[in-house]
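Write out this protein's structure.
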Amino acid sequence: MIDDLHGETDAAIGARARQYIDPDSREPLFQQVRRFLEQSLLEGRFRPNRPLPSSRHLAGVLGVSRNTVSAAYQELTALGLIESRPRSGLYPATERIAATPVSGAASAAPARPSRSRPVPTGQVDWAARLPRPLGEDLQHAAAHADWHRYPFPFLPGQPELATFPARAWLRSLNDALAGPHLARSLRDSVDGDDDLLVQALCREILPPRGMSVTPSEVIITNGAQQALSLLADLLIHEGDTVSVENPGYVDAWHIFRNAGATLHPIEVDSGGARVSRADAARSEFVYLTPSHHHPTAVTTTYARRAAILRAAQSEDALVIEDDFDSEVRFKGRPTPSLKSLDRTGRVIYVGTFSKFVAPGLRLGFVVADAALISALRERRRYLTKHPSGHLQRALGLFIESGEYHRALRQHRRHLARKYETLMEELERHLPFELPPVPAGGLSVWLNGPAGFDGTRVTELARRRGVIVDAGERFYLQDARRDAIRIGFNAIALQAIPRGVELLAEAIREQLAE
């Protein structure tokens, strides 16, 4: 038996080496040998005070050239894993990362108390270490990562790239890096919020939504999802109940569920969410999208909003109002926010710039009682510090310059044309009568007749280059397959007629099956 590898036979060495060395691989052979030796060193297979095998002997065992082994040894020396001792040979480095020997005496360090762990096998078993996702029984709303490859993306949550006000936004980005704005863009902020942006929100963005607030009642976030995550992390405790709309916003369900909450579904009809006193009594929180319900775009009526606030107050429940696209309305005036009607401080308002500026910029905000905002700011500091100072200052300048409102007006007019075109084309091509459609939001929720299978329609439509969302994905329970959601934010105006024509073909094919 050959003892050169500190107790291992040549056969054992060769068997281990075959896991790392493949002569047919495109990777250089000396690097494969180096990786094999490196792993052997880290596993403690070499005794510290015994020389490594000679390059000649190891080359014979591994079936490679002596030059290959020598090159591998040179790299290990450069990495500090082995060292050369004059007139003695190569040895494992005396100062290297401690390794647990494969065999021999146990470490003298006392074992710390810990949970039971499986016997190590060399690879970390992450499946055993990670907790089971608490929301794994929930559906995931389709993300459509490849949406830009399809000619007819009827999606509400993605931008139409050609309409983004790129020049005006670039000016704001450049201005944010000049003069007095440079320090605010580049500093590591203590409170995390850009004062120019917060003041612009308080002065220009929130008053049209019916809110008059001070900067102490506002926090900037990396989009609405971070806002919801911060709220869930701070306020929700294991076993709390959150009442949510059904159908509703799937990502919010996952955020609440992963914070330990139980979800309670609330019915949604043509008047919005129907929140009863019983719903409020069983819930610590009620999560709503009242301006344009996600996903049906229904606006919660004023009477229903007043009833929600009465129920929440009588049962001491908190309300999270997610107002993700209230500025997008095509007929009539926008309904005042639920927050604007609140006189008790129990409504927490979540807003975002994603639906207009761009979702990729990840900028949103929360409006709430100053004490809650202070606690959220403290929690955010130790999670993500704060949103990009450069983006915050640029957006503040974008609003202050008037470019935001100018671009928003143009965006609304463009969306209105797309909305009208979509309605006309649906009425022209659908094989059934178009049901009543809300006059706001970024999508149309289409309920089909008897025999209509929205999930199957989405599959048939995708084959034709058309992307729509299956309504089934938005249900917490009692999922229905009789609806699809047709967005019009991402698709170009001129693509809508042909896209609807192809969608109608898919619907007729499904109904004929």
